[in-house]
Amino acid sequence: MDDLPIGVLHLGVKTATLERAGFRTVGDLASVSREQIIRIPTVGWRTADLLSENRQALIDASDAETGTDWDRYCETTRIPLLPHEGRPRSGKDFLASLPDFLAEVADNLADETFSAILRERICQPPERQKTLDEIAATTSPPVTRERIRQKEKKLLGQLTGGLLNETYGTLGIHFRPEFSVWWKRAADRLSHLEEIEFTDFVEALSAEWEVPNHAVIAQLPIILAIVTGEPQMSGEFRAASRVDPRLFGDLRREVLGLPLNRLRLGRYVERLAEAGSETVGDIVARLRAGSLGARGGKAAEVAAMHANQLASCLRDDGLIDWRSYRTANALSCLPASPTVNAAEFVATLRDTVCDLLSVCRVTKRASEIYRLRTSRTLGSQMTLQAVADALDTHLPTVKREETVFLSFLNGVLIGHDFSKLPVWLDDLWLEYWDEARASYESARDNYGEFSENLAWKWRLTVRDIGKAAPTIWAVLSGYPTDRRSKRSISKAPVVSPIIYPDPQLPAGRIRLRGFRRVH
């Protein structure tokens, strides 16, 4: 007990006065009388009485063998002991308890402005932190933003002092040793440094607390506020805090190799490709390196958002739960009822493709042109001029729109480019398209042979296949029925061998103001 710092006596601002007078530990006060304490400048009888009462309470709660019973001491002195229930047994438990711990601190602070700063700034992620002006406007009476900044700095200093050095100032609360020991261990590891690279900082805490890097990243705003004494992070660190911590873990090869055009990234797929990002692994690598921040523009912002969304959809086995992804993006399914066999695929194909063209709005008249011409066999399809007359437009317009929507369908159904798709396509339905592509390639541009191949593959009659063959042929070749292709069809994306992204964290340096000041 005698070796404890006098901060545990909770004498408020007079603690510093007593320290300047040479009283640094509880043992230093053992033979000092009340009259001697009062003779210290600015120390009055109230402080002397409080010192005597709290020291006696500490003596009563302490034992030579078992140490100090802090529950008993805090109950006697009527000082909240925080966290109330938290005694973290591992670094994982400690990090998980941080948000609840700070919420408890805010609930037990006598200063309402301190509580507001803690709740609205320190406990919040960067994008949801209130500004100094916003907090200043809510005080009664209102104060200046500079006054809030001063109080924020004071609060962070007292939190750091209490957690690391038992110097509580005017907080009026006490921290459990089982909780503060985790901060002290981190301080011991970093105490010889004035600055540290961000990567080294995260790895040092990960090693000390025996947790993965992403567990530290998840609580980055709170940790940095305590360590640096500043609630605001730099741009690089702020970008890192917005990254789902699961992206800093080990990701499956299938996830890293996923082409970005499988995600609903819209026109930003092309911009990201121009910047050298074509797979999820490329985006994850840039996020880990801190090079996909706000400066990357809207494309980078959308890519980061989708990467976080994918992380939230990961299953226990590390693969993507596409049902969760579909729900997260509010995507309806086409066809509405899951495809169960080839016969159903063939029977409903025309209506499903027509619905797809309508919902995607590829061109103004795409669904009508498809219904009147593209989906029909050579004997029943209308000519370009007849379709133009029926739709009150011009022949070149019909031809151009047909070419555009067939190219779009080829990219989606064969190339699996879903970036601009506002719906979700049934997996089995797409598998039938892949099988049709194989039959088309083996038919050597012969429509009759193509139809016979499909009929044999799907165990259907040529007549049954005839309901769907015109559509499939047109999508694969780019032309309506029985026209020879003049272009190569899209290939389904092939997952290339993946080079795992370097799990490098954002570059930058951290000034360890909070730790250095009290250590």
Work out the helix count.
27
End-to-end separation in angstroms reads 20 Å
Alpha-carbon Rg, integer = 34 Å
What is the overall silhouette? elongated
Reported for the largest beta sheet, the result is: 2 strands, antiparallel
Strand order within the widest beta sheet: 1-2
* Estimated share of beta-strand residues: under 5%
Q: Regions with pLDDT < 50 over 5+ consecutive residues? A: 484-489, 494-505
Average residue-wise pLDDT: 85
> Helix/strand-derived class?
mainly alpha
Name the helicity range.
Answer: 55-70%
The number of distinct β-strands equals 8
Describe this structure as you would to a colleague.
This protein has 519 residues and is mainly α. It has helices spanning 14-20, 34-38, 45-60, 70-77, 91-108, 112-122, 132-138, 145-165, 177-190, 198-209, 213-218, 220-228, 235-241, 253-256, 268-274, 280-289, 297-312, 322-328, 342-360, 366-374, 384-390, 395-414, 427-442, 447-458, 462-465, 469-477, 513-518; strands at 62-63, 67-68, 81-82, 174-175, 195-197, 332-334, 423-425, 509-511. The protein has a two-stranded antiparallel ribbon with strand order 1-2. A two-stranded parallel ribbon has the order 3-4. A two-stranded antiparallel sheet has the order 5-8. A hairpin with a 3-residue loop joins strand 1 (62-63) and strand 2. The longest helix is centred in the N-terminal third of the chain and has 21 residues, at 145-165. The protein starts with 13 loop residues before the first helix and ends with a helix. The model is unreliable at 484-489 and 494-505 (pLDDT under 50).
